[in-house]
Design brief:
5-stranded mixed β-sheet; single chain; Alpha-lytic protease prodomain-like; 419 residues; 3-stranded mixed β-sheet; 59% helix; 15% strand
């Protein structure tokens, strides 16, 4: 027989479980934090009733702020992923705004610890204090372990709200120490509350102040850390088609990073420049976690000279039919304005005795020479040297010239045609 009530409960359970299953990891951690803090509130309420401690009563109120904080963080993470026409870059900074609020709650927790430590302990059941202190210790241990877990996950996910919530939860550990000291002091007839409260309050307020400063920096678009910018710089400059970085900026937005670059490329083709910028973008995202948006503005390099490279035969005059095996290479630096050869030289190919990969190594060697154009008698398309040179923006031309005299004549004839 069909039971509508049972079926409805089963449907609701499946819906809730499905919602949790499809949550992002950060959302799940925030939800776990809400549930954990609710459990702490219930446990501390029981201890407060059992011992009659005003300090524990205040701690229950403190833990209720943790529940509100964790719930706010969960909402912040959910909202931070949304984009709209008004917020095309997303609402990532909601996480930092939540972290700012959390920082104020942490400072408030520090002040509350001081108030609790200076408060009167009326109506205490002295005989129950050892067991109560043990219960507080148990709650403290649980809070510490969960805060370590949440902090670790926050670091992995680069979530400022999860990290700040973990630090807030650790403030409970410090306040628990103060309360335990107060309880045991009452049991032994000692008065240690004030000294402990001051020490604990300093740590709590310091943690809150640090989170406050970090949140303000992100909300005001302060630059990302130097190490990240330096890593981006090294990634960009390692690409053979990049000549220089003219400017680099970076900012945080929630757990994500936004990078902007102005670079000079060795390529003249707009299509090639787009391919190079896409390759750089993909590599940055692969090597640096949580980079959401990269804006690359590329410019062609402005040159006054063109550097030619030509493979030569043993006589140092005839063009070689080979590339990697050519015994010599001719280099000339030609002015773009005066149409003159400013420098020319012939160098020995240092890789002729290499058993494998001569063409690749010769290509890298030529790149270090700053060449712009390679003239060869044989087609290089589809071969290793072609990919190395073309990726760096070097133009590869096949020629029917047989010797250097014909090469020089061709170069100047071409320049006159262009002018």
């Amino acid at each position: 027989m069909f039971n509508f009530q049972t079926a409805s409960k089963d449907l609701v359970n499946r819906y809730v479980c499905g919602k949790i299953f499809f949550m992002e990891t950060s959302e799940k951690i925030a939800l776990y934090a809400v549930v954990f803090n609710l459990g702490l509130v219930a446990f501390k309420t029981l201890l407060s009733w059992y011992s009659g401690s005003l300090a524990l009563t205040a701690e229950v109120i403190h833990s209720l702020t943790d529940v509100i904080t964790s719930a706010a963080i969960l909402v912040g993470i959910k909202l931070s992923k949304r984009r709209s026409a008004s917020f095309p870059y997303g609402l990532y900074k909601i996480e930092n705004l939540v972290s700012l609020i959390v920082s104020l709650l942490i400072v408030g927790a520090g002040i509350e610890v001081v108030k609790t430590a200076f408060g009167e302990s009326r109506g205490l059941h002295v005989s129950r204090l050892p067991l109560t202190a043990a219960g507080v210790g148990l709650a403290m241990m649980g809070a510490y372990l969960f805060s370590c877990y949440e902090h670790k996950k926050g670091k992995e996910l680069n979530s400022p709200s999860l990290i700040s919530d973990a630090q807030h939860l650790r403030s409970d550990v410090l306040s628990a120490i103060a309360i335990m000291a107060g309880l045991m002091g009452e049991y032994l007839g000692l008065r240690l509350d004030k000294a402990v409260a001051i020490v604990v309050a300093i740590f709590i307020i310091r943690a809150g102040a640090q989170i406050f400063i970090d949140s303000i920096r992100v909300l005001l678009d302060a630059s990302v850390d130097f190490a990240t910018l330096d890593k981006v710089k090294n990634i960009v400059l390692s690409h053979p088609a990049v000549e220089e970085i003219k400017a680099i900026w970076g900012r945080n937005s929630g757990r994500y990073k936004f990078i902007e670059l102005i670079i000079t490329l060795k390529v003249n083709s707009l299509k090639k420049a787009h391919i190079v910028s896409h390759e750089i973008e993909q590599r940055i995202k692969a090597e640096i976690p949580h980079v959401d948006h990269i804006l690359i503005q590329y410019e062609p390099r402005e040159k006054d000279f063109l550097v030619y490279a030509v493979p030569l035969a043993e006589d140092k005059h005839t063009l070689s039919d080979h590339f990697g095996d050519a015994p010599y290479f001719y280099f000339c630096k030609v002015g773009l304005k005066d149409k003159k050869i400013h420098t020319e030289k012939i160098e020995i190919n240092p890789y002729t005795l290499l058993e494998r990969g001569r063409g690749i190594e010769v290509s890298k060697w030529l790149l270090n020479k700053g060449i712009d154009i390679v003239l060869t008698r044989k087609e290089l398309t589809g071969k290793g040297p072609f990919f190395v040179l073309s990726e760096a923006g070097v133009e590869i031309k096949t020629t029917q010239c047989r010797n250097l005299d014909e090469v020089k004549q061709m170069i100047f004839q071409k320049k006159e045609e262009n002018n």
